[in-house]
């Protein structure tokens, strides 16, 4: 496991880095609690065979900024379990429970679902340690992946950004890279606002249809666990081709760093909504900005999930969660894009400055 995390540190964090190993259940993982100035840190538990300390640390910092930018009383953290999420369900449950026992005393970290984990995993963690968000309904939770909290927030961000991007959401052609818990709901909520899905991909390939994919049929097709490349309503393309699709809105909603210096110049969209966490490198964002492509940063655009989680954590309802997501993402997206234009800087620079100022202000109320 990579352990060169010190170089990622600065005055904000990380506050704690915990490396986990339990040989009995073959658990290997990491937790990074980046900053708790605003309150207990909320962040997802990612499960993937190639997750690294560096990735988790970067994601934890993104959560610090995301929670602060959203005005939540929570700091940022992230966890990673090095394993294949498609393993046997019984073994996966044992692994998640072992992870829970390993973080029992890490009380300033509240875990939530992320890539490779879901509400069932959070139910196991709640049973083990009594703290988790994104719980099943039967346990009093608001299942954020089921209701599409993050996808809903992306649609709200699109509505705010459309004028500055020179597009209109109604009639906009949308390409989504990653058709999982975030991507499929982003497609649904954008379609409700009149957008047309023209390309979509998952880990096994992608498809396109310039005339528009039948979203209802595609969603039903994916419910069966089948890869999108087998969907009969579109032509097979590569995931690299998907990023260069002839579209108005591109939603990278899969892994980190899918947009980089090598492919950012081929993006044809006018608006990039970052559905995944850290889906674009700094070089990619600079290239997109120079080409006039508006790129709404991850921790602004995709904050719907953690806003929902915070509402759940504090005893709120699903209705309150949707209202909070809409209010906070609408306000923050507008503030960041207006400030970026005023200063002539990348949207991420304006967003980081906003979030950092809030974290630093909260830190003044903490004992040194």
Shape, please? globular
Q: Count of helices?
A: 13
Helix and strand succession? EEEHEHEHHHEHEEHEHEEHEHHHH
Number of separate domains? 2
Percentage of residues in strands: 15-25%
- What is the share of helical residues? 40-55%
CATH topology of the largest domain: Rossmann fold
Radius of gyration: 19 Å
Arithmetic mean pLDDT: 95
Question: What would you note in describing this structure?
Answer:
This protein is an alpha/beta fold. It has two domains: 6-65 and 75-141, Rossmann fold (3-Layer(aba) Sandwich), CATH 3.40.50.10860; 149-304 and 331-351, Rossmann fold (3-Layer(aba) Sandwich). 42% of the residues lie in helices and 18% in strands. It contains 13 helices and twelve strands. It has helices at 53-69, 89-102, 119-129, 144-147, 149-165, 183-192, 215-223, 239-243, 282-290, 298-301, 304-313, 318-343, 347-363, and strands spanning 16-22, 27-35, 41-48, 76-82, 109-113, 173-177, 196-202, 205-208, 235-237, 249-252, 271-273, 294-296. The strands form two sheets. It has a seven-stranded mixed beta sheet with strand order 9-8-7-6-10-11-12. It has a five-stranded mixed beta sheet with strand order 1-2-4-3-5. The longest helix is centred in the last third of the chain and has 26 residues, at 318-343.
């Amino acid at each position: 496991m990579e352990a060169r995390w010190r170089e990622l540190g600065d005055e904000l964090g990380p506050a704690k880095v915990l490396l986990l190993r339990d040989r009995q259940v073959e658990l290997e993982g990491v937790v990074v609690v980046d900053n708790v100035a605003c309150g207990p840190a909320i962040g997802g538990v990612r499960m993937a065979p190639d997750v690294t300390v560096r990735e988790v640390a970067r994601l934890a910092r993104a959560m610090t900024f995301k929670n602060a930018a959203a005005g939540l009383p929570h700091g940022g953290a992230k966890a990673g379990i090095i394993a294949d999420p498609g393993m046997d369900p019984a073994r996966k449950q044992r692994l998640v429970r072992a992870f829970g026992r390993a973080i029992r005393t890490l009380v300033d970290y509240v875990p939530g679902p992320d890539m490779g984990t879901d509400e069932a995993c959070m139910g196991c963690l709640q049973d083990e340690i009594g703290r988790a968000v994104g719980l099943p309904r039967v346990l009093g939770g608001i299942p954020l992946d089921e209701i599409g909290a993050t996808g809903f927030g992306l649609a709200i961000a699109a509505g705010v950004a459309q004028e500055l991007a020179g597009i209109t959401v109604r009639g906009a052609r949308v390409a989504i890279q990653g058709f999982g818990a975030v991507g499929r709901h982003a497609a649904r909520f954008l379609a409700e606002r009149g957008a047309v899905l023209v390309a979509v991909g998952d880990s096994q390939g992608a498809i396109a249809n310039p005339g528009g994919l039948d979203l209802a049929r595609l969603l039903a097709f994916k419910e069966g666990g089948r890869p999108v490349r087998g969907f009969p309503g579109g032509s097979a393309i590569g995931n690299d081709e998907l990023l260069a699709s002839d579209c108005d809105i591109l939603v990278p909603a899969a892994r980190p760093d899918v947009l980089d210096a090598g492919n950012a110049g081929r993006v044809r969209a006018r608006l990039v909504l970052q559905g995944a966490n850290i889906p674009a490198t700094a070089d990619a964002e600079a290239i997109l900005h120079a080409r006039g492509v508006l790129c709404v940063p991850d921790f602004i655009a995709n904050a719907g999930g953690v806003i929902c989680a915070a509402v759940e954590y504090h005893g709120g309802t699903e209705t309150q969660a949707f209202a909070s997501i809409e209010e906070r993402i609408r306000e923050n997206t507008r503030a960041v894009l207006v400030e970026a234009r005023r200063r002539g800087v990348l949207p991420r620079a304006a967003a980081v400055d906003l979030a950092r100022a809030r974290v630093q202000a909260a830190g003044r109320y903490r004992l040194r």
